[in-house]
Design a protein that fits this description.
Layout: E1 8-13, H1 19-25, E2 31-35, H2 36-41, H3 43-55, E3 59-63, E4 77-81, E5 91-95, H4 97-106, H5 110-115, H6 127-151, E6 167-169, H7 182-197, E7 204-212, H8 219-230, E8 236-242, H9 251-266, E9 270-273, H10 278-282, E10 290-293, E11 316-318, E12 323-325, H11 327-333, H12 342-348, H13 353-359, E13 372-373, E14 382-383, H14 385-408, H15 411-426, H16 440-445
Helix pairs in contact: 6-7, 8-9, 13-14
């Protein structure tokens, strides 16, 4: 029998190009989260996908992403061809169409602020507009899919069978603690959560605490914040501590995080990490209900998006260290780790069906997870699509195995396992980069 319940893990669908991976593996997880901007940009594909997920008895929810309207609107703008002008093609810089639609659906104060080309601010929310806004966000999440369903001639006759999402998120905005103005944003988020919780409606309501990770440096303030949200009466909360990286978390911040989780658990509330990985799975031993992440990424996310960067490499998820790393780093360390053939690799690293299929008895095939090619016109090599695909599918299968592993072992056993692995890798020669990539395991062990 499992020692504790398996973490409820939600896959976040970032784009429909990732759908093939989610469709193949979502049955291994608790459910799927989809951003409202994806629903607006590709409604037909998103609705059909949601019906597939819910039909397989998996949880499904739409993240309204209200926080985007409380930040510099340039983050949700793009450059497009201005088709209103004749003659020579010109471009214009404006709000992405999906966010224009969201602003229209959400109504004031978002729509009014967008019209004035500015973000919303706490002073925009008086009592009347706060209630109307909360009702709008609830209505959007519970009816938007059905609206698109009704608009499709082929699906109209089945619209009564379009299910509600499993739960809905309260509207939320980023709290830039401890920067100036953070208290106003804190009070607004608590006000919104309170108001949202009082709305009529049968779909379960969840709160979101979206705040700078530096809040963890002030444990007393952090615990007061947790209590304020607990007092809203909502049954579940999602933590987005931006841009917390589990591999880099300090002892003190981990301790504060655990104290916060304890406060939700003691109050009988479920609590999730909006962007997490293996540490979040370990924290199930402390009461963390679950977490979400993307398809091979998304275990850490900054509220402030990075603009204009190259497409990131989808590195191989290395189960012994529970991190993603380059295949070349792994290959250089194999001999020192006592891995000389495929059987050794499957015993000590990963025996998922993807790894077994790719390696196919020859350890040299491992490099297929890290293949790069120099495309014409580019100055640097890029990962091949086939390599990225293999890494994504391996990651999802490996993650499920990690969840089973954590559920089946006791906290004491996991603590010892982490410390033993950290010691093993610390003993590798210094010229091997994996030697320095296991230090986080000792920090994680303190959570158990």
């Amino acid at each position: 029998m499992p020692d504790t319940p398996r973490s409820e893990v939600f896959l976040r669908l970032g784009s429909h190009s990732e759908k093939q991976y989610v469709i193949k593996t979502f049955r291994l997880f608790h459910g799927v989260l989809v951003g409202a901007n994806l629903l607006e940009s590709t409604p037909g594909a998103t609705v059909s996908f949601a019906l597939n997920v819910i039909g397989q008895k998996r949880a499904f929810a739409i993240d309204p992403m209200t926080y985007t309207f409380g930040m510099d609107l340039d983050y949700i703008k793009s450059e497009t061809i201005d088709r209103t002008k004749k003659g020579k093609k010109t471009t214009k810089f404006g709000l992405k169409k999906s966010f224009v639609k969201l602003a229209e659906e959400f109504g004031n104060p978002v729509s009014d602020a967008v019209e004035k080309d500015r973000p919303v601010k706490p002073s925009d929310f008086d009592d009347d507009i706060t209630e109307a806004f909360c009702e709008s966000i609830y209505t959007y999440q519970t009816t938007r899919m059905r609206t698109y369903f009704d608009a499709d001639i082929q699906l109209q006759e089945f619209s009564d069978h379009c299910p509600d999402p499993t739960f809905v998120f309260a509207p939320y905005f980023y709290i830039p603690c401890p920067e100036a103005g953070w208290k106003e944003w804190r009070d607004l988020n608590i006000k919104l959560a309170n108001c949202f919780g009082e709305l009529d409606g049968d779909v379960e309501k969840h709160g979101v605490i979206c705040i700078d990770q530096k809040i963890l440096d002030d444990s007393a303030r952090w615990l007061r914040l947790c209590k304020s949200f607990i007092d809203t009466g909502l049954p579940a909360f999602w933590l987005w501590l931006s841009p917390l990286s589990e591999e880099k978390i300090s002892d003190s911040r981990l301790q504060a995080l655990m104290e916060g989780i304890d406060s939700f658990k003691d109050a009988g509330r479920r609590v999730y990490n909006m962007h997490g990985g293996y540490l979040s799975a370990l924290l199930s031993k402390r009461g963390l209900t679950g977490f979400s992440h993307g398809v091979g990424y998304g275990e850490s996310k900054d509220v402030v998006p990075v603009i204009g960067v190259i497409v990131p490499v989808v590195n191989y998820h290395y189960p012994p260290l529970h991190i993603r790393t380059g295949i070349a780093e792994i290959e250089r360390a194999l001999t020192e780790l006592g891995i000389s053939d495929a059987d050794d690799f499957h015993e000590k690293v990963c025996d998922c069906t993807v790894c077994k299929g790719v390696i196919a008895g020859d350890l040299k095939n491992l490099r297929q997870f890290g293949e790069f090619v120099l495309k014409v016109g580019n100055s640097r090599e890029s990962q091949t699509p086939d390599s990225a695909k293999k890494c994504r599918l391996h990651f999802l299968l490996a993650r499920r195995k990690e969840l089973d592993h954590v559920a089946e072992l006791t906290a004491a056993d996991l603590k010892q396992e982490l410390r033993d692995t950290a010691k093993e890798y610390a003993g590798l020669p210094g010229y091997l980069t994996l030697q320095s990539k296991a230090r986080h395991l000792n920090v994680w062990a303190k959570a158990l």
